[in-house]
Fold this protein.
Amino acid sequence: MLKIDNLTNEIDGKAILKGLSLSINAGEIHAIMGPNGAGKSTLAYTLGGRPGYDVTGGTAEMDGANLLEMAPHERAAAGLFLGFQYPVEIPGVSNLQFLRESLNSQRRARAEAPLSGGEFIKLAKEKAALLGMDMEMLKRPVNVGFSGGEKKRAEMVQMGILDPKLAILDETDSGLDIDALKIVGAGINTIMRKPDRAVLLITHYQRLLDYVKPDFVHVLADGRITRTGGAELALELEREGYRELAA
Amino acid sequence: MSALPLPTRRDESWRYGDLDALARVWPVDAAERIVVSAGETFSRIIVQDAASSEVAIRHIEITIGRDATAIVHILNTGGDYGRIAVDVTLEEGAHFELGGAILGSGTQTLEIVTTVNHAHPNATSNQIVRSVLAGRATGSYLGKVMVARDAQKTDAGQSVKAMLLDRTATANAKPELEIYADDVKCAHGATVGELDKQALFYLASRGLPPPQAKALMLQAFIAGAFAKIADDAERERVETAAIAALEKLL
Ligand SMILES: Nc1ncnc2c1ncn2[C@@H]1O[C@H](COP(=O)(O)OP(=O)(O)OP(=O)(O)O)[C@@H](O)[C@H]1O
Ligand SMILES: [Mg+2]
């Protein structure tokens, strides 16, 4: 599904990713953990094609297609979804309007028929219910005035509606209360735990992984994957911290 | 009768005008005069969408009678040079409402120029102008609010915001106050900005191609200009024209 090989990049001329390699197969859930500033969000943004995140070397392919050559909206249409660590507020633009246009743009790009207004609302209601989010919130402008936890939940509603092949979720668990964490965890499983889907979870804590059990856990430190293991690695990290590991 | 001389840049209200273009159509028609009788409501929608080589100069003078209201909406988007000037005088307790959008590209010069004269007490005015400018276009709002000595309890608001799609475009925003009364409320704000890049990436990451993402954000940006058109069908007509004009800028 995703194959990253020796990826390097720069932000404002500063090297952040320093030869990162990672492969994710369909049906797998991977977690990335790592110290603050290690480059986890940078990896997510770089795969999403955020302007300013200049790739200086290496490759990243999704289903054999060169991700790095595509514009951000083309990556989305190809099946990539980015759950933002800090979802952006967009005054005046309603969630429902932008999601419908986004989904239909993706569908047109894949030569699928666009959804009608009625079909879209039905889909949105279903996904909002799955994540326990009030439809009224989806009528409001994108993330404006949402609490930290509501923003993360809204990201997952968006993921449900857009139904990506590969989701990269950057600290989706941060800001969620205990009940919300459970709901979001279950939502991720329902939407993404399928043989033809894959997830890359970026997190600092084991607690999300209690609900969304990873097949692989990686440590990202100083722009590279420095260690890979199974679900037990996350528990070890929680006990020992990263310092022990580097030694 | 001798023709009026062509204005010069020293005339405050023409300082950002395209005077060469103006010379092509000079002398222009005299101002249209409108008197709104006491207690009445007058509304006018001006859609200036002249063909690209044209020069469109409009001037309206409105006297708003006691406790009367005038509501003016302007979509200024056509022509080489498009200028819409509105001069308003308010009687006691009158209200003036302006909602305007300036949407320009290429080498267009587009202006909304207002003078609002609060000559008597208890009158209110509210002006909202949103500009979106691309290419080497120039969009200007010059809005002078005068509050006479005995025009106590005046409440005058001006909200002016411009969005530049290209660094080569120019926005001029000149809200101006001349206040001689002491018990008045005059709020004015003017900002010039660019589309939020983070928001554009966020929208793109959901699958929206850049022109569509920009169009969504720009629609939201100008929405306030036409929100107060009371008639739904009229509002939709103007909004549709505005969206079409926006799409031409992208
Ligand atoms: N726009 C930017 N300009 C300059 N440096 C940047 C920029 N964005 C990120 N960086 C730097 O890149 C490094 C990696 O940042 P990144 O956000 O990827 O870390 P992270 O692993 O996600 O950390 P956290 O766990 O705190 O979220 C940091 O040193 C950060 O300061
Ligand atoms: Mg981060």
User: Anything to note?
Assistant: The first strand of chain A starts at residue 2 and ends at 11. Chain A touches chain B through 33 residues (CB under 8 Å). Residues A 11-12, 14, 16, 34, 36-42, 85 surround adenosine-5'-triphosphate (ligand 1) (CB under 6 Å).
